[in-house]
């Protein structure tokens, strides 16, 4: 028998929008807006925040919005309601990605509470990890969680495959670093020290010169020609961590939204056990390298995210736009 919800539907909607702003997004662009009509939330893509050089198709934008969608679903469940979701509800309005509202009252289970507690705590890491191992049982649980959302999370165990992914990441980063358009787009979302902006990547969120891991996964050059960053990081944090690839069977906008929901479920679950993620999407932003990866390492599925999972004690602050800036 369902118990009464802990909040009213209106309060659940407000909590969902507040939670959604904490979702991860590429370069912390926060490329979403929300419209609330009664007890219904419309999630829209903010195409003004799309990366027009590295994400011309909007794939990373929709993955980011998918993460926000999962966050809303989790907040609504935590408030005591089953979320009712319609994805891509209007073909004539492609920017309208989903409509969400509280449905039947449900008792939030322990798993929902676990994920919800991490919404504001989760942080992206941008360097190496400590040598502490990620428990195998946790990795198995993350794989199952991604699958439940329509994605496939594959931990890459073979050293040769890890070396290939690292080499592809370094190659893609090197090519992008030589392309002024890519560099300027990245630096647009890099916040200078002391900046009051509520989006982008803060200068304190990455080391100027991270200690290299073995094999080395290249980091974004957010300090391009500026020397920004937070010192040299922890020189002892040189572990690559667990390398994993998130894939989907298709490569449509619906698949990208599913990838984002899978990603956020993985990240929140990992965060609950002290595990952070570092992202490496450079190779996925170059179509020929992404296709090579799909054919050679992903069994024909479409790679949507390359990540490293590990343990770090390097806490960072997070910046997010206020809710009033997201409502439109």
UniProtKB/TrEMBL annotation:
Residues 195-215 are annotated as: Disordered. Residues 9-40, 119-310 form the Nitroreductase domain. InterPro entries: Nitroreductase (IPR029479), Nitroreductase-like (IPR000415), Nitroreductase/BluB (IPR050627). SUPFAM superfamilies: FMN-dependent nitroreductase-like. It holds the Pfam family Nitroreductase. PANTHER family: NAD(P)H NITROREDUCTASE RV3131-RELATED, NADPH NITROREDUCTASE. This is Nitroreductase family protein. It comes from Nonomuraea corallina.
